[in-house]
Design a protein that fits this description.
With about 110 residues, this protein is an alpha+beta fold. About 60% of the residues lie in helices and about 20% in strands. The chain is built from five helices and four strands. The chain has a four-stranded mixed sheet with strand order 1-4-2-3, with helices on both faces. Helix 1 packs parallel to helix 5. The longest helix has 28 residues. The protein is globular and about 40 Å long.
C-alpha cells in the first residue's frame, strides 16, 4: 500500500514538473502560452488551450472568495474541449512557479 501511494505521488509531481517545464520553454520562446486568469480564460474559451495549469492555491482562494463556481466551469470547459487539465500543488516547486505567474496558465495549441 505505501509503495503505491509513493509511486502515485511521484508520478503526480513528475506530471506537474513536466507541465511547468513545458510552459517555461514556451515562455522562453515567447510562443504558445498564456498566464493570468483573464488571458488563460480567453485561451480556453477560444479553443487554443492544449493544457490548463491551475494551482491548488488558486482553487483554495476561489473557494474562500465564493467564486469557485466560475473556476470550476472553466475547468469543465477545458475538458469538454479536449484540453488537458493539470492541477499543480502550490506546496511543491512547480506550484510555486505557477503561483508566481498568477496561479493559472495555459500551454496553447497554436
Amino acid at each position: 500500500e505505501i509503495g503505491k501511494s509513493a509511486i502515485l505521488k511521484d508520478s503526480q509531481i513528475n506530471l506537474e514538473t513536466g507541465a511547468i517545464n513545458e510552459l517555461l520553454v514556451n515562455i522562453n520562446k515567447n510562443s504558445k502560452f498564456s498566464y493570468g486568469y483573464e488571458h488563460s480564460y480567453e485561451s480556453v474559451m477560444s479553443s487554443k488551450c492544449e493544457k490548463l495549469l491551475i494551482s491548488t492555491d488558486l482553487i483554495d482562494k476561489k473557494k474562500e472568495d465564493k467564486t469557485y463556481k466560475e473556476l470550476n466551469e472553466l475547468m469543465m470547459t477545458c475538458e469538454k474541449l479536449n484540453s488537458e487539465l493539470v492541477i499543480v500543488n502550490s506546496k511543491n516547486e512547480p506550484g510555486k512557479i505557477l503561483d508566481g505567474l498568477g496561479s493559472i496558465a495555459t500551454i496553447n495549441r497554436y
